[in-house]
Structures are given as structure tokens and as C-alpha cells.
Design a protein that fits this description.
Elements (H helix, E strand, L loop, with lengths): L2 H22 L15 H41 L7 H6 L7 H13 L34 H13 L22 H4 L9 E2 L5 H8 L23 H20 L6 H8 L2 E2 L8 H28 L10 E5 L7 H9 L4 E3 H11 L4 E4 L6 H15 L14 E4 L3 H14 L7 E5 L5 H10 L2 E6 L1 H10 L3 H5 L4 E5 L1 H4 L2 H12 L6 E6 L4 H6 L9 E4 L12 E7 L5 H15 L4 E5 L3 H13 L4 E4 L5 H13 L3 E5 L14 E5 L5 H8 L9 E7 L6 H4 L5 E3 L7 H13 L2 H18 L1 H4 L1 H15 L5 H10 L14
Parallel strand pairs: 5-10, 5-11, 6-8, 6-9, 7-8, 9-10, 12-17, 12-18, 13-15, 13-16, 14-15, 16-17
Antiparallel strand pairs: 1-2, 3-4
Helix pairs in contact: 2-4, 12-13, 13-14, 16-19, 21-26, 22-26, 22-27, 27-29, 27-30
Bound molecules: adenosine-5'-triphosphate.
Function: RNA helicase.
Keywords: ATP-binding, Coiled coil, Helicase, Hydrolase, Nucleotide-binding, RNA-binding
Protein name: ATP-dependent RNA helicase
Length: 791
């Protein structure tokens, strides 16, 4: 065999081997390593396991609390038995405590109603305040809040001469609130309706329910131990307690007292043993009273709505305190002064010192009142205090982590942080947000010595899971901030937040800020906060949650006319305001696209912003709108929270928001820094149910505007020019939205009707095939009168 043949054979073998090697080479640039030499999946599984364990631990802790509560109940009841009863068990049990159960209840009643018992009351059923007297109390309202309970008791005094003691302690001047609950806002007095007791709720709500805070206008106890004739004797309550005691003892004998099964039994919702009024005739008159008060309440609300534009509430945004009075770095004070911040706003004054002291804090304050600076200052101070700062580390630990729900908000917060760090060389801020290249983030993380990260949860988790060494950098974290905390702890984000928190050191400070903190968020806030955190609420029960100088109104109009009404309102506003700046909120990204296309065809100066747009475009539009005047931003809810666009003159909400909180945040884009503003919500008749959710807000009804037929034709013509694919996409998205949020949407027959109306308002013919496609997409089957199922 010649050499050339041998060479050719060898060449063939070599090329085969190289082809095989190419085929088995792993994709994505080789294996990634994680701390502890784990691969990506092992690392992910480890985190999931840790999360599961944490969940189990929390559950166990909760069980322990129930057990302890049960034990203490039994102890009180056993101690309540007098030795005179001759029961050996009771006499030995009496050693547990010196009081009988009824004495205990009476003493508590006395304690709660006496003056100076403020320390017993909680902030919005939260933990007891460390510092009950704030240095600068929120200025009082010009219009005093309507105290339903006080009115009730006053009326009752007049009616039958008996003095009913209100459960609400008297507001002491100089205090923000002695205690709080949602009672004032959510719970109208509902007589004859039993309120529920949830034994698994936190200790604070126990306090509420035990003392009938929820929905009860009056309290059964009186000072001095005298009994209100409307309520049964405490002894009848004791009889109930005794029965329960016997049942519990029987359970105990079976040795299942503290078993999971026993706990499950106590986990069930129980009807609270709220004392009922005895006299039926009094109940009737009481009903009348309540009706009367409701009417008065409605009237007051209407008056407030009518006059809100005329400075009903003159609350000052700034306090007399100045930043240099706090223990913050002089360089930061210099930067603050440079940016025009000299005095603190109310929320900054209320929260700053507590945050600087290193406590875990949950803060609620109205939109546009300066929460960002209130959490950025403690974050910067925490970084400055760390010994590693100033040391020339190539890769510095991440000391402060700020999480925001949207990319634009994260960029805005990072920009604000940079303003405050103007004179601090060596401290860096980096924003990690979705929609940008991961590689670019990695390079910036390696090249910039940043100690503060502002991130959206998804992208941060990406870095934790896919970038080796990133989790290690987080181990030195000193402070965690959740801006728009209620949204971040919402179902959409919660899993991500839990995963992130699992990667952070336990010994850290956590700050949660938002303009809305629903009760359920307070309960789950302990996913992030320590149990003994402080709750600061600068809004309070007595005040409205929306900006005081924003006039709020709604219009009910047939859906087929919505685009026409929007066009009319915008034209009218442009005529009235020379420097108009309007935000139009739409229900979904696709509906936003459609509305923008329509306004664009109508030659209005508008921009669009929603999640379907690339990040670069979104950033550009956001910056442009921040700087501009005489511009309309048509947007989805990506702009509803936290975005600080100065001098917005009108917020127009087209269609129902997904919940009450979203309404407040959308509206909060106007009237910032205590300025004037206007908010209009446009609803279809079937969306009126939403008004009930915001009934305590000063919102008034506007009549349906008189529409110009010529303008109507113009709108129809412009709608005709909009691309069919945009209309179809909006149609799908719109139906999906209503199907997911509203009761109406869940009624399939109504949904078909809505679909027809929506399609006609777009000039879409709604062919059955299109509706079938939508219905299938939404997982709907068997709609009466329509064959949805694919044959
Ligand atoms: N101490 C201050 N003095 C003057 N202006 C301030 C001060 N603090 C904040 N501001 C201004 O108040 C405006 C609103 O601030 P910020 O965006 O922090 O409000 P926010 O409470 O976070 O609102 P949202 O709830 O919508 O997120 C900003 O324009 C900011 O510059």
C-alpha cells in the first residue's frame, strides 16, 4: 500500500473522530460552576429544597403559636374556676393565675377603655410601635374624619340616655394613630351579621376579633365594669367558654390535643362569639340609626368629592425638619441640597430615623410623597458604615439590594441613587433589569465596583442562578428594600421574592415601602421582615389614600362609545390646559397598542408604552415623557406604579383596573408632591361593580359628555384605518382580561355579549371563527349557543 493511500485512510479516521467530538460538545460555552462545585440544576434544586424547608418551618411556627394560644386559653379558664367548687383539679389549676375568667375579661375591658391605654392598641393591627409618639405628627385635616362609632355612641346617648363606650380610643393630639384597623374603611356596621373569627390569623387580628373590632359599631363593655343593657352578661360568655373547656379536656384525654388533626380542627373558621343585642325593638331602631348614618356618610362623601378641587385638604408635603439634623453623611446632605432637597417630606420624617437605627420597617405613604429618598438614604448609610467600602476590592460585596416590580421604576430608582451619591466616590449603583443583554450585565458587574444593586426580581434571579459568584457577593448584604412591596409580595412575584430572600443572609435590615398595603400583604410581609418590625403609616384610617388635591370622577358610557369619549375628553382637556400632560391607562398591552394607533390616526400627540415594546424603546419614551409637556402617554400598567413623571395634568383610566390598589397607583401619577391633578375613570355599565371597591374614595360621577357627531365619524374613520391584526390581538387580550378579573367575565353568556360589543366598538365583524379562536385560547368550552369545541 502506498503512503498516499495510508494517509488518506488516516485522514478519514481523523475526520470521523472530529465529527463525533463536535456532535457531543455541550452547548452554551461549557459548564457553569456554582458555589460548592454544584451544577446549575443541583444549585436550583438546592434552592427549591431550602424554600420548601422554610415553608415547613413557618408552618410549624404557626402551629406552635396556636398551641400556645390554646394552652393559655385553657390556663385562663382553669384558673377561673373557684376552689369553692371543690374540684381538685381546679384548685390546683388556680395556682396558674389569681383571676377568674370573668375578672380577666372585665379587667381587659377596663384596660382598653381607660385613658392612657394607647399602648395596647396597634398600628393597623400590626406590631406595637416602639416609638408611639412621632416627632412630627402628620398635619391634621381641615375636614375632620367622620367617626362612625362616635356618631353612633352620641346618637345612642341622646336616644336612651345610656352611654355606650366606643371601642376606638380617643385620638390624642400629637399622635398619628393610637391603633388602627381596617374597620373605618372596610367595615360598615352590619347589624345582625355575624363577623368571623379566624384563629389562624396573626396576633393582631386576634385582638381585632376578640374585641369585636370588625364591623361592630359599639363595644359591649363599659368603663367601671357596668354592663350595657344591650349586651348579655359576661357570665353567658363564660358558659360558652366552659362548654368549650369540657370539649377541649375530652380531646386532651384522647392525647390528640396537640396533634396535627387537633390543630386542623382549630384551624377551621369559627364564628366569633360576638354578644348580640338582647332587645329586638332596640335592634330595629338601631338599624334606622345605621341607615341614617350611612346616608350622612354618603352625603359627606359627595360633598368631599365636589369640593376636592377646592382645597378640602391642605396637607403640607414638607416638614420643618432638615436633612442635616439626621445622622447622615455630610456628603449625602450636600448632594441632597444640590438636588433641591432641604426639608424632609412627611414620610421621610416619619420613617428616616427608624430606618437609620437599623430596624425592619414597613412603610405606607401616599403616592408622590418622596418614599424613594426615604429608603435610599438608609441604604446609602448602610453601605457607608461597612468596613469593606473604600478598600480597593476588585469585586466588592453587594451591600444594598433594592427590588422594584418594573424595569422603568428600577432605572428611575438607580438614577435617584446616583443623584444622592454624587459626592461619594467609590460607591456604585447598578441596575439589573430584564430586556437588556445578560452578558452586558455581567461585564458591568465585573468592571464597576458597585455596592448597591437596583433590580427587577426576574433578572436578579437569573443572575443568582446562572452567574457563578453572584450569590457569594450577596452574602455580605446589609439592607434589602422592596419598593412597591405589596405588588412584589403579590402572587405574580412572591415565588421569585422567596427564592431571592433564601439567598440572602438572615442578619440584614429589610425595608418595605408602598402607597397601598392590603391586610393580606401585612400578614405575609414576614416572608421578608423580622417579626418585631415597625409599621409606619402616614396615611392613617382617618385620611384618604389618594393625593388630596386630585379631583376624581368617573363616567359610565356604553362600551361602543369608549373610544369616542376618550377622544372627546382629551380634546376638551387640551383646550383647557395649555401645558397638558396626560396618561391614558388601558387594560392590556394589546388594547394600549390599539388605542395608541387610533389616537395616532386622529393626529394627537401621543406615545405608547407597554410590555410588547423593546426595552430601548420603553426607556426612550419614558425619558421623553418625563421631560415633555403637551404630550399624551398611552400605557398599560407598566407605568402605573412608582413612575415619577412630573406635572401630569390628567390621568384617564379606560376600563376597569384589576383592583382597588391599581386604581390608587394609576391615579397617583398625577398630583405628585402635593400638586393639583385630575383623574377620570371611564367605565362600561357592566363595570360599575368596581365603584363599590373604591366607595371610600372621594370620587364623583360625571355626566356622559355630549359627543359631536362629526368627531364620532372621524373616530370611526380612524378606527377603520387601524391594522386588522392589531384589532384582533386587542380583542383577544381584552376578552382574556375580563375573563380573568371580573365576575362578569366568568359568566360565559355575558362574555359572548361583551365580545360582540367590543368587536362592534372596534368595527370588527366578530366572525364566529375569531370568537372561537379566542374562546379556545382562553380555555373556554361549551358556551351556550356557540360551538367552541374544535370538531
Ligand atoms: N425632601 C424632598 N423635598 C422636595 N421634593 C422631594 C423630597 N423628597 C422627594 N421629593 C420629590 O417628590 C417626588 C416624588 O417622589 P417619589 O417618586 O419618591 O414618590 P413616591 O412616594 O415613591 O411615589 P410612588 O408611590 O408613586 O412611588 C419626586 O419628584 C421627588 O423629587
Amino acid at each position: 500500500m502506498s503512503w498516499s493511500v495510508v494517509l488518506r485512510e488516516r485522514w478519514k479516521i481523523l475526520s470521523k473522530i472530529s465529527a463525533t467530538l463536535t456532535a457531543v460538545r455541550s452547548m452554551g460555552g461549557g459548564p457553569r460552576t456554582f458555589p460548592g462545585g454544584l451544577n446549575k440544576w443541583q444549585f436550583k434544586r438546592m434552592h427549591e429544597k431550602m424554600a420548601r424547608e422554610k415553608e415547613r418551618r413557618l408552618l410549624e411556627q404557626e402551629k406552635e403559636v396556636y398551641q400556645a394560644r390554646l394552652r393559655s386559653q385553657i390556663r385562663v379558664k382553669v384558673a377561673g374556676r373557684s376552689p369553692a367548687q371543690g374540684d381538685e383539679e381546679s384548685s390546683s389549676a388556680a395556682a396558674y393565675g389569681p383571676m377568674t375568667a370573668s375578672d380577666h375579661v372585665k379587667a381587659l375591658a377596663d384596660r382598653f377603655t381607660k385613658e392612657g391605654a394607647e399602648d395596647l392598641w396597634n398600628e393597623d393591627d400590626g406590631p406595637l410601635r416602639d416609638d408611639p409618639v412621632p416627632r412630627n405628627p402628620a398635619p391634621s385635616r381641615t375636614v375632620p374624619p367622620l367617626d362612625l362609632r362616635k356618631m353612633m355612641s352620641d346618637r345612642c346617648k341622646v336616644a336612651d340616655g345610656t352611654a355606650w363606650r366606643s371601642r376606638r380610643p380617643v385620638e390624642t393630639p400629637g399622635r398619628r394613630r393610637q391603633y388602627s384597623s381596617d374597620a373605618g374603611r372596610k367595615c360598615r356596621p352590619k347589624l345582625g351579621v355575624k363577623s368571623k373569627w379566624y384563629p389562624d390569623s396573626d396576633s393582631d387580628s386576634d385582638l381585632d376579633s376578640d374585641f369585636g373590632l370588625e364591623g361592630d359599631p359599639v363595644k359591649p363593655f363599659q368603663t367601671g365594669g357596668t354592663r350595657n343593657p344591650k349586651f348579655p352578661r359576661v357570665s353567658s360568655v363564660n358558659a360558652d367558654l366552659k362548654e368549650e373547656e369540657v370539649a377541649i379536656r375530652a380531646e386532651k384525654k384522647k392525647k390528640i390535643m396537640l396533634s396535627g388533626a387537633a390543630l386542623m380542627n382549630h384551624d377551621r373558621k369559627k364564628e366569633r362569639r360576638a354578644p348580640k343585642p338582647k332587645a329586638v325593638e332596640k335592634e330595629d331602631s338601631l338599624d334606622e340609626e345605621v341607615e341614617c348614618i350611612r346616608d350622612e356618610l354618603e352625603k359627606r362623601k359627595r360633598d368631599l368629592a365636589a369640593t376636592v378641587g377646592q382645597e378640602v385638604e391642605e396637607e403640607a408635603l414638607l416638614t420643618p425638619r432638615r436633612f442635616e439634623e439626621y445622622s447622615i453623611s455630610p456628603l449625602t446632605v450636600k448632594a441632597l441640597t444640590c438636588a433641591g432637597y432641604v426639608q424632609l417630606t412627611v414620610v421621610q420624617d416619619a420613617a428616616l430615623q427608624t430606618c437609620l437605627d437599623g430596624n425592619d420597617v414597613l412603610v405606607k405613604a401616599r403616592t408622590g410623597t418622596g418614599k424613594s429618598i426615604a429608603f435610599l438614604l438608609p441604604a446609602i448609610e448602610a453601605v457607608l458604615k461597612d468596613a469593606t467600602v473604600g478598600v480597593n476590592n476588585r469585586i466588592s460585596p453587594i451591600l444594598a439590594l433594592i427590588l422594584c416590580p418594573t424595569r422603568e421604576l428600577a432605572s428611575q430608582v438607580a438614577a435617584e441613587a446616583n443623584v444622592l451619591l454624587k459626592y461619594h466616590n467609590g460607591i456604585g449603583v447598578l441596575s439589573l433589569i430584564g430586556g437588556t443583554r445578560f452578558k452586558v450585565d455581567q461585564q458591568r458587574l465585573e468592571s464597576d465596583p458597585c455596592q448597591i444593586i437596583v433590580a427587577t426580581p426576574g433578572r436578579l434571579l437569573d443572575h443568582i442562578e446562572n452567574k457563578s459568584g453572584f450569590s457569594l457577593r450577596l452574602l455580605g448584604l446589609k439592607i434589602l428594600v422592596l419598593d412597591e412591596a405589596d405588588h412584589l409580595l403579590d402572587l405574580g412575584f412572591r415565588k421569585d421574592i422567596e427564592k431571592i430572600v433564601d439567598c440572602l443572609p438572615r442578619k440584614r435590615q429589610s425595608l418595605l415601602f408602598s402607597a397601598t398595603i392590603p391586610k393580606e400583604v401585612r400578614r405575609i410581609s414576614q416572608v421578608v421582615l423580622k417579626r418585631e418590625h415597625t409599621f409606619i403609616d402616614t396615611v392613617g384610617l382617618s385620611s384618604q389614600e389618594t393625593p388630596p388635591k386630585v379631583s376624581q370622577s368617573y363616567i359610565i358610557a356604553p362600551h361602543t362609545l369608549h373610544f369616542e369619549v376618550v377622544h372627546h375628553l382629551l380634546k376638551e382637556h387640551i383646550m383647557q390646559e395649555a401645558n397638558y400632560k396626560v396618561i391614558v391607562f388601558c387594560t392590556t398591552a394589546m388594547v394600549t397598542q390599539l388605542t395608541f394607533a387610533l389616537l395616532h390616526n386622529l393626529k394627537m400627540n401621543a406615545r405608547e408604552m407597554h410590555s410588547r415594546k423593546p426595552q430601548l424603546y420603553r426607556t426612550r419614551i419614558s425619558d421623553e415623557f418625563r421631560e415633555s409637556k403637551r404630550l399624551i402617554l398611552v400605557t398599560s400598567d407598566v407605568s402605573s406604579r412608582g413612575m415619577n413623571y412630573p406635572d401630569v395634568t390628567l390621568v384617564l383610566q379606560m376600563g376597569v383596573p384589576c383592583d382597588r390598589e391599581q386604581y390608587i397607583h394609576r391615579l397617583g401619577r398625577t398630583g405628585r408632591e402635593g400638586k393639583n391633578g385630575r383623574g377620570i375613570m371611564l367605565l362600561a355599565p357592566w363595570e360599575e361593580y368596581f365603584l363599590d371597591e373604591i366607595r371610600e374614595l372621594p370620587i364623583g360621577k360625571l355626566p356622559m359628555p355630549v359627543l359631536n357627531p362629526d368627531a364620532g365619524e372621524k373616530v370611526a374613520e380612524s378606527m377603520g384605518k387601524v391594522d386588522m391584526s392589531i384589532k384582533e390581538a386587542a380583542y383577544h387580550a381584552w376578552l382574556g382580561y375580563y375573563n380573568s378579573i371580573s365576575q362578569t367575565g366568568r359568566d360565559k353568556t355575558t362574555l359572548v355579549e361583551l365580545a360582540n360589543r367590543f368587536s362592534s366598538s372596534m368595527g370588527l365583524q366578530c366572525p364566529p371563527a375569531l370568537f372561537r379562536r379566542t374562546a379556545l385560547k382562553m380555555g373556554l368550552k361549551d358556551i351556550p349557543g356557540i360551538r367552541v369545541r374544535n370538531s
